[in-house]
């Protein structure tokens, strides 16, 4: 699976346009999955440095210390500097340890979630998954409440695939996308959440009352390349033109 994660990151197209996180989140899931981007970053060389670093970490080729050293050296060689001098040394500066760790970890977790989703897609032995906390947070989000809200938003046919009170649902249930800040059916479901998925067996899913009718019949999720188009509605005319120009050149 590590190989799948590495290849998934390496195949992403660099998108050097200084959009905010909110603007990127407004793009289609498919477009974001096919793109490598950093909020506010428009330097191609810097994006390439981080794509390579994330792929190496996903493959298990380097330690955290080695990758930080390599990223700092590569950014220095590329003469990277924040566009705004006031951003030097802040979280917006991609050379700082905190931002560096955040960028790499987020991309690696996204790739791991994507690979896991593909691996368990349509699995009959483990047709469901449970959301559990794996990392301590000083101010943890209320995922039980988020689950209840997501469950309440489901159409009747999808509610049968999930538990209302226990954070368990079929792999193909819409609740995973409704739960996600990124509209993705796999973790991470939010930045720095500390939450992961655990596989649930068929017998346990049935015991929990999750309906299994029709499970495994055909593709459970779409990753069609023709859906990988950006939604430009939330961008300024200048940003939209810049993104379209860059995409046409690739």
Estimated helix fraction: 40-55%
Instruction: State mean pLDDT (0 to 100 scale).
Output: 88
Shape: globular
Q: Report the sheet-strand fraction.
A: 5-15%
Structural class: mainly alpha
Kindly report the oligomeric state of this protein: single chain
Largest sheet: 3 strands, antiparallel
- Number of DSSP strand runs: 5
What order do the SSEs take from the amino end to the carboxyl end, as H and E?
A: HEHHEHHHEHHEHEHH
* Poorly predicted segments: 219-228
Number of domains: 2
Number of helices: 11
Strand order of the largest sheet: 4-3-5
How large, in whole angstroms, is the Cα Rg?
A: 19 Å
Termini, distance in Å? 28 Å
Q: Can you walk me through this structure?
A:
By secondary structure, the protein is mainly alpha-helical. Helix content is 44%, strand content 8%. The protein has helices spanning 2-10, 21-25, 29-33, 44-59, 64-77, 97-120, 143-152, 156-159, 175-179, 202-207, 237-249, and strands at residues 13-14, 35-36, 128-133, 168-170, 195-200. It is globular, with a radius of gyration of 19 Å. Mean pLDDT is 88; it is low at 219-228.
Name the descriptors.
250 residues; 2 domains; three-stranded antiparallel β-sheet; single chain; mainly alpha; two-stranded parallel sheet; 44% helix
In short:
By secondary structure, the chain is mainly α.
Task: List strands and helices in order, with pairings.
Layout: H1 2-10, E1 13-14, H2 21-25, H3 29-33, E2 35-36, H4 44-59, H5 64-77, H6 97-120, E3 128-133, H7 143-152, H8 156-159, E4 168-170, H9 175-179, E5 195-200, H10 202-207, H11 237-249
Parallel strand pairs: 1-2
Antiparallel strand pairs: 3-4, 3-5
Helix pairs in contact: 1-4, 1-6, 4-5, 4-6
């Amino acid at each position: 699976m590590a190989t799948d994660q590495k290849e998934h990151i390496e195949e992403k197209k660099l998108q050097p346009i200084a959009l905010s996180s909110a603007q990127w989140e407004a793009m289609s899931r498919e477009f974001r999955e096919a793109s490598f981007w950093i909020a506010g970053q428009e330097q191609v060389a810097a994006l390439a440095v981080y794509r390579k670093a994330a792929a190496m970490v996903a493959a298990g080729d380097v330690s955290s210390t080695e990758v930080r050293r390599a990223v700092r050296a590569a950014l220095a060689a590329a003469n990277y500097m924040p566009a705004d001098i006031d951003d030097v040394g802040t979280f917006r500066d991609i050379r700082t340890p905190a931002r560096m760790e955040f960028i790499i970890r987020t991309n690696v977790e996204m790739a791991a979630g994507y690979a896991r989703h593909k691996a368990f897609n349509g699995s009959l032995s483990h047709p469901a998954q449970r959301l559990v906390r794996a990392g301590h947070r000083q101010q943890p989000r209320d995922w039980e409440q988020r689950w209840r809200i997501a469950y309440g938003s489901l159409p009747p046919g999808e509610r049968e695939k999930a538990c209302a009170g226990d954070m368990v649902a079929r792999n193909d249930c819409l609740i995973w996308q409704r739960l996600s800040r990124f509209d993705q059916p796999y973790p991470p479901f939010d930045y720095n959440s500390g939450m992961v998925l655990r596989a649930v067996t068929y017998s346990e899913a049935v015991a929990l009352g999750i309906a299994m009718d029709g499970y495994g019949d055909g593709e459970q999720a779409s990753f069609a390349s023709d859906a990988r188009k950006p939604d430009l509605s939330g961008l300024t005319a200048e940003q939209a033109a810049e993104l379209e120009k860059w995409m046409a050149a690739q």
